[in-house]
């Protein structure tokens, strides 16, 4: 199967979100053309017990990793993914049903672009969908040039990018606990890569208070890490 896009999904303590996430993936208009790598970072089978009922779909690929952080999981996914275009998808976020086809098609039609991203609505309630959500707040969006990105990570949680950028510029830096994707995007831009902001709302970002970067115990550490990344690329 020649997949058009590989999806990197780190799965950790996901019982609350996982079924709704998998159903959201299935409703993507290009689902049959997706390679969805479910990278299980748990040391138990709680998440697998939900995932196993979806594995009859060829698009879902289950990989048991054991305990690791999200960027270690994504890097493992980079080793085995087969599509020329990639995205990540967090299990507590939801996508507009045609958004991946829209983003992937844009990348296929514009080979000079290394990464594209669209707008996001923000939710404070778990397992809302893109179409039905309580709050219609929008994530701040800039153009994605270096000067913009040093102020704000506009691609945020639903970018689509080319696999070959990792051959050119390396993988996600595992020393970071929450900002390795941000650092990766800045690294691409510094080396001449091109980003494109699309005129489309592509998904719903859940401001999960228990997430790695938003957990009250980690907020200061997360902010400091982002600041350190910005200092490197200024």
Overall pLDDT metric: 94
Q: What are the low-pLDDT stretches, counting only 5+ consecutive residues below 50? A: none
So what's the overall shape?
A: globular
- The helix content, as a percent range, equals 25-40%
Structure annotation, total helices? 8
SSE topology:
Layout: E1 5-11, H1 18-26, E2 34-40, H2 48-51, E3 60-64, H3 70-80, E4 85-88, E5 94-95, H4 99-109, E6 115-123, E7 137-138, H5 146-149, E8 160-162, H6 164-169, H7 180-190, E9 195-206, H8 219-233
Parallel strand pairs: 1-2, 1-4, 2-3, 6-9
Antiparallel strand pairs: 4-8, 5-9, 6-7, 6-8
Helix pairs in contact: 7-8
Could you describe the 3D structure shown?
The protein is globular. Helix 1 links the parallel strand 1 and strand 2. Helix 7 packs parallel to helix 8. Helices cover 30% and strands 22% of the residues. With 234 residues, the chain is an alpha/beta fold. The mean pLDDT is 94. Strands 1, 2, 3, 4, 5, 6, 7, 8 and 9 form a nine-stranded mixed sheet that branches. It contains eight helices and nine strands.
């Amino acid at each position: 199967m020649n997949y058009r896009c590989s999806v990197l999904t780190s799965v950790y303590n996901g019982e609350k979100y996982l079924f709704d996430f998998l159903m959201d993936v299935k409703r993507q208009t290009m689902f049959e053309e997706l390679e969805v790598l479910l990278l299980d970072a748990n040391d138990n089978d709680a998440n697998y017990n939900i995932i196993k009922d979806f594995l009859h779909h060829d698009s879902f690929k289950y990989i048991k990793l054991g305990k690791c952080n999200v960027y270690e999981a994504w890097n493992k996914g980079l080793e085995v993914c087969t599509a020329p275009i990639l995205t990540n998808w967090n299990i507590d976020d939801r996508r507009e049903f045609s958004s991946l086809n829209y983003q992937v098609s844009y990348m296929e039609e514009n080979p000079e672009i290394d990464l594209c991203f669209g707008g996001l609505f923000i939710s404070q309630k778990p397992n809302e969908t893109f179409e039905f959500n309580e709050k219609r707040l929008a994530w701040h969006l800039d153009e994605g040039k270096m000067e913009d990105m040093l102020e704000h990570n506009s691609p945020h949680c639903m970018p689509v990018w080319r696999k070959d950028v990792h051959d050119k510029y390396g993988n996600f830096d595992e020393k970071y606990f929450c900002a390795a994707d941000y650092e990766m995007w800045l690294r691409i831009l510094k080396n001449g890569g091109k980003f494109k902001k699309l005129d489309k709302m592509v998904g719903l970002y859940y401001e999960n208070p228990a997430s790695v970067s938003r957990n009250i115990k980690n907020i200061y550490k997360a902010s400091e890490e982002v600041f350190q990344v910005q200092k490197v690329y200024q």
